[in-house]
Specification:
Layout: H1 2-5, H2 8-25, H3 41-66, H4 71-95, H5 99-112, H6 132-138, E1 146-149, E2 153-156, H7 157-171, H8 176-193, H9 195-202, H10 207-223, H11 226-244
Antiparallel strand pairs: 1-2
Helix pairs in contact: 2-7, 4-5, 4-7, 4-8, 6-7
Protein backbone atom coordinates (compact mmCIF):
# COMPACT_ATOMS: atom_id res chain seq x y z
CA UNK A 1 0.00 0.00 0.00
CA UNK A 2 2.85 2.36 0.87
CA UNK A 3 4.36 1.82 -2.58
CA UNK A 4 1.05 2.68 -4.20
CA UNK A 5 0.88 5.99 -2.38
CA UNK A 6 4.39 7.08 -3.26
CA UNK A 7 3.95 7.24 -7.00
CA UNK A 8 6.50 8.91 -9.25
CA UNK A 9 4.90 12.34 -9.17
CA UNK A 10 4.84 12.49 -5.38
CA UNK A 11 8.44 11.30 -5.15
CA UNK A 12 9.41 14.15 -7.45
CA UNK A 13 7.46 16.62 -5.30
CA UNK A 14 9.19 15.39 -2.14
CA UNK A 15 12.60 15.57 -3.79
CA UNK A 16 11.88 19.10 -5.01
CA UNK A 17 10.68 20.15 -1.57
CA UNK A 18 13.82 18.77 0.05
CA UNK A 19 15.98 20.61 -2.46
CA UNK A 20 14.17 23.86 -1.72
CA UNK A 21 14.57 23.30 2.02
CA UNK A 22 18.31 22.98 1.52
CA UNK A 23 18.26 26.33 -0.26
CA UNK A 24 16.17 27.77 2.54
CA UNK A 25 18.67 26.71 5.17
CA UNK A 26 21.40 28.62 3.38
CA UNK A 27 19.50 31.91 3.40
CA UNK A 28 20.75 34.60 5.76
CA UNK A 29 17.43 35.73 7.23
CA UNK A 30 16.55 34.08 10.52
CA UNK A 31 13.12 35.24 11.69
CA UNK A 32 9.64 35.39 10.23
CA UNK A 33 9.07 39.01 11.13
CA UNK A 34 12.01 40.35 9.11
CA UNK A 35 11.36 42.01 5.77
CA UNK A 36 11.51 39.46 2.98
CA UNK A 37 14.68 39.73 0.93
CA UNK A 38 13.97 40.52 -2.72
CA UNK A 39 17.09 39.75 -4.78
CA UNK A 40 14.95 38.77 -7.80
CA UNK A 41 13.05 42.04 -8.01
CA UNK A 42 13.57 42.55 -11.74
CA UNK A 43 12.19 39.11 -12.59
CA UNK A 44 9.49 39.41 -9.94
CA UNK A 45 8.27 42.69 -11.40
CA UNK A 46 8.00 41.07 -14.83
CA UNK A 47 5.92 38.21 -13.43
CA UNK A 48 3.83 40.70 -11.43
CA UNK A 49 3.11 42.64 -14.62
CA UNK A 50 2.11 39.40 -16.35
CA UNK A 51 -0.25 38.59 -13.49
CA UNK A 52 -1.75 42.07 -13.71
CA UNK A 53 -2.52 41.55 -17.40
CA UNK A 54 -3.94 38.10 -16.73
CA UNK A 55 -6.15 39.48 -14.00
CA UNK A 56 -7.31 42.40 -16.14
CA UNK A 57 -8.27 40.33 -19.18
CA UNK A 58 -9.24 36.99 -17.60
CA UNK A 59 -9.92 36.92 -13.86
CA UNK A 60 -11.56 40.30 -13.45
CA UNK A 61 -14.16 39.69 -16.23
CA UNK A 62 -14.86 36.25 -14.78
CA UNK A 63 -15.23 37.78 -11.31
CA UNK A 64 -17.66 40.36 -12.70
CA UNK A 65 -19.95 37.53 -13.82
CA UNK A 66 -19.30 35.51 -10.68
CA UNK A 67 -20.36 38.50 -8.57
CA UNK A 68 -23.85 38.22 -10.08
CA UNK A 69 -24.41 34.77 -8.55
CA UNK A 70 -26.56 34.45 -5.41
CA UNK A 71 -24.66 34.99 -2.16
CA UNK A 72 -25.39 31.47 -0.92
CA UNK A 73 -23.80 30.00 -4.06
CA UNK A 74 -20.63 32.08 -3.64
CA UNK A 75 -20.54 31.21 0.06
CA UNK A 76 -20.85 27.53 -0.81
CA UNK A 77 -17.90 27.71 -3.21
CA UNK A 78 -15.80 29.49 -0.58
CA UNK A 79 -16.79 26.98 2.11
CA UNK A 80 -15.96 24.02 -0.12
CA UNK A 81 -12.53 25.38 -1.04
CA UNK A 82 -11.72 25.96 2.64
CA UNK A 83 -13.02 22.54 3.65
CA UNK A 84 -10.91 20.83 0.97
CA UNK A 85 -7.78 22.48 2.35
CA UNK A 86 -8.54 21.65 6.00
CA UNK A 87 -6.45 18.41 6.04
CA UNK A 88 -3.40 20.64 5.50
CA UNK A 89 -4.27 22.51 8.70
CA UNK A 90 -4.86 19.24 10.56
CA UNK A 91 -1.46 17.81 9.59
CA UNK A 92 0.46 21.01 10.24
CA UNK A 93 -1.28 21.67 13.54
CA UNK A 94 0.04 18.27 14.62
CA UNK A 95 3.54 19.14 13.37
CA UNK A 96 3.42 22.40 15.33
CA UNK A 97 2.07 20.63 18.44
CA UNK A 98 -1.05 22.80 18.52
CA UNK A 99 -3.41 20.31 20.14
CA UNK A 100 -6.48 22.55 20.30
CA UNK A 101 -6.19 23.69 16.69
CA UNK A 102 -5.60 20.07 15.62
CA UNK A 103 -8.71 18.74 17.35
CA UNK A 104 -10.93 21.66 16.32
CA UNK A 105 -9.96 21.52 12.63
CA UNK A 106 -10.22 17.70 12.57
CA UNK A 107 -13.70 17.62 14.08
CA UNK A 108 -14.94 20.43 11.86
CA UNK A 109 -13.55 18.74 8.74
CA UNK A 110 -15.28 15.46 9.57
CA UNK A 111 -18.55 17.20 10.42
CA UNK A 112 -18.62 19.25 7.22
CA UNK A 113 -17.79 16.15 5.19
CA UNK A 114 -21.51 15.47 5.40
CA UNK A 115 -22.07 18.41 3.02
CA UNK A 116 -18.71 18.12 1.19
CA UNK A 117 -17.96 21.46 2.80
CA UNK A 118 -20.45 23.43 0.74
CA UNK A 119 -22.48 24.19 3.87
CA UNK A 120 -20.79 24.92 7.19
CA UNK A 121 -22.68 22.95 9.82
CA UNK A 122 -20.77 24.62 12.66
CA UNK A 123 -20.05 28.27 11.71
CA UNK A 124 -19.38 29.27 15.33
CA UNK A 125 -16.32 27.05 15.65
CA UNK A 126 -13.15 28.70 14.37
CA UNK A 127 -9.61 27.46 13.90
CA UNK A 128 -6.41 29.04 12.65
CA UNK A 129 -5.27 28.00 9.18
CA UNK A 130 -1.89 26.26 9.17
CA UNK A 131 0.32 25.12 6.30
CA UNK A 132 3.74 23.57 5.92
CA UNK A 133 5.26 27.00 5.39
CA UNK A 134 4.03 28.02 8.84
CA UNK A 135 5.43 24.77 10.25
CA UNK A 136 8.84 25.66 8.82
CA UNK A 137 8.55 29.12 10.38
CA UNK A 138 7.59 27.57 13.71
CA UNK A 139 10.86 25.63 13.67
CA UNK A 140 12.88 28.74 12.78
CA UNK A 141 13.50 27.98 9.10
CA UNK A 142 14.16 31.32 7.43
CA UNK A 143 11.66 32.75 4.95
CA UNK A 144 14.13 32.97 2.09
CA UNK A 145 13.81 35.36 -0.84
CA UNK A 146 10.57 36.95 -1.99
CA UNK A 147 9.26 35.54 -5.26
CA UNK A 148 6.24 36.24 -7.46
CA UNK A 149 4.72 33.21 -9.19
CA UNK A 150 2.53 33.21 -12.31
CA UNK A 151 -1.16 33.13 -11.28
CA UNK A 152 -0.39 32.21 -7.65
CA UNK A 153 1.21 35.57 -6.94
CA UNK A 154 3.57 36.55 -4.09
CA UNK A 155 5.33 33.99 -1.95
CA UNK A 156 8.42 33.60 0.13
CA UNK A 157 10.56 30.63 -0.84
CA UNK A 158 9.59 29.00 2.45
CA UNK A 159 5.90 29.54 1.69
CA UNK A 160 6.26 28.11 -1.83
CA UNK A 161 8.22 25.05 -0.70
CA UNK A 162 5.48 24.38 1.83
CA UNK A 163 2.82 24.63 -0.89
CA UNK A 164 4.42 21.69 -2.69
CA UNK A 165 3.94 19.33 0.25
CA UNK A 166 0.59 20.83 1.21
CA UNK A 167 -0.79 19.97 -2.21
CA UNK A 168 0.04 16.30 -1.73
CA UNK A 169 -1.54 16.24 1.73
CA UNK A 170 -4.71 18.01 0.61
CA UNK A 171 -5.48 16.03 -2.53
CA UNK A 172 -3.74 12.68 -2.31
CA UNK A 173 -1.84 10.79 -5.00
CA UNK A 174 -4.81 9.44 -6.94
CA UNK A 175 -7.14 12.40 -6.82
CA UNK A 176 -5.73 14.52 -9.65
CA UNK A 177 -9.10 15.17 -11.29
CA UNK A 178 -10.44 16.44 -7.97
CA UNK A 179 -7.30 18.50 -7.47
CA UNK A 180 -7.85 20.16 -10.85
CA UNK A 181 -11.21 21.50 -9.64
CA UNK A 182 -10.11 22.76 -6.22
CA UNK A 183 -7.41 25.16 -7.43
CA UNK A 184 -9.69 27.01 -9.91
CA UNK A 185 -12.42 27.22 -7.26
CA UNK A 186 -9.93 28.61 -4.73
CA UNK A 187 -8.62 31.18 -7.21
CA UNK A 188 -12.17 32.20 -8.14
CA UNK A 189 -13.27 32.50 -4.53
CA UNK A 190 -10.14 34.41 -3.45
CA UNK A 191 -10.37 36.80 -6.41
CA UNK A 192 -13.90 37.65 -5.36
CA UNK A 193 -13.12 37.93 -1.64
CA UNK A 194 -10.12 40.20 -2.13
CA UNK A 195 -11.35 42.21 -5.11
CA UNK A 196 -11.21 45.52 -3.19
CA UNK A 197 -7.70 44.77 -1.94
CA UNK A 198 -6.58 43.97 -5.48
CA UNK A 199 -8.00 47.23 -6.78
CA UNK A 200 -6.24 49.07 -3.96
CA UNK A 201 -2.95 47.48 -5.01
CA UNK A 202 -3.40 48.36 -8.67
CA UNK A 203 -4.27 51.97 -7.80
CA UNK A 204 -1.11 52.43 -5.72
CA UNK A 205 1.79 54.51 -6.98
CA UNK A 206 3.93 51.38 -7.05
CA UNK A 207 1.57 48.36 -7.20
CA UNK A 208 4.46 45.87 -6.95
CA UNK A 209 5.77 47.42 -3.73
CA UNK A 210 2.25 47.70 -2.31
CA UNK A 211 1.59 44.01 -2.98
CA UNK A 212 4.90 43.04 -1.44
CA UNK A 213 4.23 44.98 1.77
CA UNK A 214 0.69 43.59 2.12
CA UNK A 215 1.88 40.04 1.50
CA UNK A 216 4.70 40.34 4.04
CA UNK A 217 2.42 41.73 6.76
CA UNK A 218 -0.50 39.41 6.12
CA UNK A 219 1.67 36.33 5.83
CA UNK A 220 3.37 36.99 9.14
CA UNK A 221 0.02 37.56 10.86
CA UNK A 222 -1.46 34.39 9.35
CA UNK A 223 1.38 32.09 10.44
CA UNK A 224 2.04 33.70 13.81
CA UNK A 225 1.93 31.36 16.75
CA UNK A 226 2.59 32.19 20.37
CA UNK A 227 6.15 31.05 19.82
CA UNK A 228 6.67 33.39 16.87
CA UNK A 229 5.11 36.34 18.67
CA UNK A 230 7.37 35.74 21.65
CA UNK A 231 10.35 35.58 19.30
CA UNK A 232 9.28 38.89 17.73
CA UNK A 233 9.08 40.55 21.14
CA UNK A 234 12.49 39.16 22.06
CA UNK A 235 14.00 40.45 18.80
CA UNK A 236 12.52 43.90 19.41
CA UNK A 237 13.87 43.91 22.96
CA UNK A 238 17.32 42.87 21.71
CA UNK A 239 17.32 45.69 19.16
CA UNK A 240 16.30 48.18 21.87
CA UNK A 241 19.06 47.00 24.18
CA UNK A 242 21.61 47.38 21.38
CA UNK A 243 20.56 51.01 21.00
CA UNK A 244 21.17 51.56 24.71
CA UNK A 245 24.66 50.06 24.61
Amino acid sequence: MFNRILNNKNIFKLFLAQLILILLSSCTQNSANKEIHDPLESMNRSVFKFNQGLDKYVFKPINTEYEKLPENVKKGVSNHAKWASTPVTVVNSAIQLEAENFSTSSIKFLLNSLTLGFYDLDPETKYKTRDFGSSLANYNISSGPYIVLPILGPRSLRHFSGNILDQSVSNGPKNHSYNSTILPMSILSNRNTYSKVIEDIYNAQDPYLRAKILYTENRFNSISSTKLLEQQKQDEQDEFEKLLD
